[in-house]
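User: Continuing from earlier, I have the next pair ready.

Assistant: Great, send them over.

User: Here they are, in order.

Assistant: Folding the first of the pair now:
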Amino acid sequence: MPKVFTYFGFIIYIFTDDHLPIHVHAMIENREGKFILDYFEGILTILDGHVNGKKHLKAREITEMRKFVLLHANKIKEQWEAIHIYKKKITCIEVKEKV
């Protein structure tokens, strides 16, 4: 599971054998959530969900990650394609500015 980003304690990653739709997992401490890039008629919406068997992110963490994923959606899409389509290794990006 390559790390895509680190962000103020969060680790954002993509599983190499995962499925569509394009999404990332975000983990902080022992909590985890999933964030899906949902494109409908050219409009991007970020959907969030829980990961089975994992503790849920707190409400404020979900809000923070939805903002983060929306802001970095293009890079997430690029890295998803690099991993799943082109079978390339990616480099984790450390984000040091709050969204």
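And the other member of the pair:
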Amino acid sequence: MAMLTITQSAVTVLKAAKAANDAKGDAGIRIRRDVRSDNSGMIAIGLAISDSPYPGDEEFEQDGLRIFIEDALIDPLDGRTLDVREASEGPELVFH
């Protein structure tokens, strides 16, 4: 299992996003590579609401929220923490 830590603040933001999108009760948040690409060499990460994991995804639950991690991100996110920081536009999800 991937050792990604998700703070309580991040879980709260993700649950609110899921509720705002009228997602099914058992839907989860999928952490995936973003389709956008730049030449920085950094991995762009996107979040999407998904009814179920894709084949190969790592799945876990935290505080009643299902999380799916794309197989290509399992190792890069190992040991990282998903948190929230306040930005001028509102809460912003960040990895530490």
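Worth noting for the second one:
Residues 5-95 form a domain with the Hypothetical Protein Aq_1857; Chain: A; fold (CATH 2.60.300.12). The CA atoms of residues 63 and 69 lie 16 Å apart.
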